[in-house]
Write a structure and sequence with these properties.
By secondary structure, the protein is an alpha+beta fold. It is 35% helix and 20% strand. The strands form 2 sheets. Strands 1-4-5-6 form a 4-stranded antiparallel β-sheet, with no helix packed on it. Strands 2-3 form a two-stranded antiparallel ribbon.
Length: 161
């Protein structure tokens, strides 16, 4: 026998088995519908249990904010980026969205250009602000190094390391 003939016999046998199974299920549905639908419900229940159970019980933890102290010196570092040149935005009000156009920085002068601070810049913590039930979610910092020394603004507490 060739491989083709073996494949045809296997396909025919699979079709025959599927037909027998389907006909017996239809006969069960007509003769005893409670058992038929109960079996389907049981299979769905088992499938749901298998989908909801399992997995790794370990909790995935990300970066967390330090216990910051007002008056202490820290460094600005964004834990959500690997790009060292990525600046951290200082905003005037805690929780404000920093939507801005970079091209306007040259026109507004030093105050606005000092709103984007490079990572690694030393800062001092001035004040704290709670947000959405999280204590000290925002931190008011004052820049201690560089050409923006003395300027202040609000950043996320997680950006102060």
């Amino acid at each position: 026998m060739s491989n083709e003939e073996n494949a045809k016999k296997t396909v025919e046998a699979a079709k025959e088995t599927a037909d027998k199974l389907l006909s017996s299920m239809m006969r069960l549905k007509e003769q005893n519908p409670k058992v038929f639908f109960g079996a389907i419900g049981g299979l769905v229940f088992l499938l749901l249990v298998m989908m909801m159970s399992g997995g790794n019980p370990e909790i995935v933890s990300g970066p967390s904010a330090k216990n910051l102290v007002a008056g202490q010196r820290y460094v600005l570092k964004n834990p959500n980026t690997y790009e060292i040149q990525s600046p951290i935005q200082l905003v005037a009000v805690p929780g404000a969205i920093a939507a801005f156009d970079d091209s306007e920085d040259e026109e507004k002068g030093k105050v606005e250009s000092c709103r984007r601070i490079a990572q690694g810049t030393a800062v001092s913590v001035v004040d704290f602000q709670d947000f959405a039930g999280k204590k000290n979610a925002f931190v008011k910092v004052q820049v201690e190094d560089g050409e923006c020394k003395g300027s202040s603004g609000w950043v996320l507490a997680i950006d102060v390391q």
